[in-house]
Design a protein that fits this description.
With about 140 residues, this protein is an alpha+beta fold. The chain has 4 helices and 8 strands; from the N terminus they run βααβββαβαβββ. It has helices spanning about 15-30, 35, 80-95, 110-115; strands at about 5-10, 45-50, 55-60, 65-75, 100-105, 120, 125-130, 130-140. Strands 1, 2, 3, 4, 5, 6, 7 and 8 form an 8-stranded mixed beta sheet that branches. Keywords: Acyltransferase, Transferase.
Length: about 140
């Protein structure tokens, strides 16, 4: 496996890759309804794509208020530090733009991953798209 590279993505220009990853992870794998996956915030969000070579294997988005979401890594690339590289890039970008507090709605099964990146749980468990989630927050150290 080559090194994972993360770059800023553009919703219109990179739409096919962003959709391919999110559809594979959220819609096909996790059975999220398409009408819940796509929202009006995509057009204004800052998007990120993680690549192995020239193949996009992960994505995330950052909203103007510091909300991180739609974090998705294709199944075959999980456990290979793609998620870490992706979130490190999102956090760095957020902090460079004055967003010193980042928050996200994490699937409960992924909380340990986010805790390693400095996030802490700040809510009880709730269902989002039928999947157990918790709210998490990260403050710039």
């Amino acid at each position: 496996m080559s090194e994972i590279q993360v770059r800023l993505a553009h919703w219109q220009k990179d739409n096919a890759e962003l959709r391919r990853i999110r559809e594979a992870v959220f819609i096909a794998e996790q059975s999220v309804a398409p009408e819940l996956e796509w929202d009006a915030e995509d057009a204004a969000a800052t998007h990120f794509l993680a690549y192995e070579g020239d193949y996009a294997v992960g994505t995330a988005r950052l909203l103007d208020d510091g909300q991180i979401g739609r974090v998705a890594v294709l199944k075959d690339w999980r456990g290979l530090n793609v998620g870490h590289a992706l979130l490190a890039a999102v956090i760095a970008h957020a902090e460079q733009h004055g967003l010193n507090v980042q928050q996200l709605s994490a699937q409960v099964q992924a909380t340990a991953f986010y805790e390693k990146l400095g996030f802490r749980i700040v809510s009880g468990e709730y269902l989002e798209a039928g999947i157990p989630h918790v709210d998490m927050v990260r403050n710039q150290p």
